[in-house]
Amino acid sequence: MENSIVKSQAYGKDRVRVVRVVRHQDGWQEIADYWVCCLLSGEQFETSYTKGDNKLVVATDSQKNTVYYLAKTLPAEKVMVPEVFASEVASFMVKKYAHVTSCQVKVTTKPWERMKFDDKAHAHSFYREGKETRWTEAVVTKTSPPSAASLNTIINSGFYDLEVLKTTNSSFVDFWRDELTTLPDMPDRLLSTKVLCQWKFVPQTIEALQAIDYDAAYNGAKRNTLDAFANDPRAWVHASVQSTLYIMADRILNDFSHVDDVYYALPNIHYFPFDLSKFGLKNTQTDAEVYMPIADPSGLITATISRPSKGKF
User: Fold this and answer.
1) How far apart are the C-alpha atoms of 250 and 307, rounded to whole Å?
2) Catalytic residue among 13, 64, 142, 222
3) Per-chain mean pLDDT for the chain
4) Which residues contact 217 (CB under 8 A, 6 or more apart)?
């Protein structure tokens, strides 16, 4: 006899590829290029798992169609910003279907860059270089289902695969040593990482959340990440990747009051000086000019940095 219960569930359509072009009367055109994942959840879907009853199942194909429908019918300004589009799709789903309690929509994009010729931006031509991937996730949940009168909205955003490297002004010294330690102090080293950064917005009404300048937050997070890595005075001789991470996140929190916390994952992509002593050549520490990249294993530094809780001194 079947006694197991459905502890949690969600289903939907993943990797929905949608492109929206905005054509202005003066010939200027804009493009948004997304991968969309839409997942629905609710207690009334349980019987589709336990009884094979599909009467309340909104087909994943219908969810795909909804993404394209909204990409066409929503005002352009609600489609061209990933966070706003994700929240619109999620709120549409929970409002349309009484038995849907929550909808989670993730939008991923690798933005197209506008071509420039003689320092003049082209009206309708773009290119895409190897660069970081931007993403956002909106979760809209009914607070008193099945009514959609009151909704709770959470938006998280971020980017990944932003690869950075600097050839000096990074150190790693004075770390714990015991009988298993073989790594020497590294007063100056080549530092590289592939940045994953994500930030959570302070929970608000969906109207207030949609009023946020999300492009400014994304560009600011990227700018602070790069500037802290390369130019922050505290970053010239970091004690560790951990301190680099903290400075990056702290700067984002200081610049954007609507960001609640910031998470980073920074793999330490190692470049070790190659031992050329067997050829009578010095290539260690201050003499190092030739390096051997080491893919595996790599260090991995992660942390979530948030604002102090109220009342904490």
Assistant:
1) 9
2) 13
3) 91
4) 157, 199, 256, 258, 259
Catalytic residue flag (residue 109): no
Catalytic residue among 47, 60, 167, 284: 60
Asked whether the beta carbons of 81 and 95 are under 8 A apart, the reply is: no
Which residue in 142, 222, 238, 270 is the catalytic one? 270
Residue 24 among the catalytic residues: no
Give the best-scoring range by mean pLDDT among 135-149, 163-177, 186-200.
135-149
Q: What residues contact 177, with CB distance under 8 A and at least 6 apart?
A: none
Do 87 and 30 touch, CB atoms closer than 8 A?
A: no
**What is the value of pTM for the model shown?**
0.87
Active site residue 60: yes
pLDDT in tens, 221-260: 999 999 999 887 776 555 688 989 999 999 999 999 999 9
Question: What phi, psi does 234 have (nearest 5°)?
Answer: -70, -15
DSSP 8-state symbol, 261: E
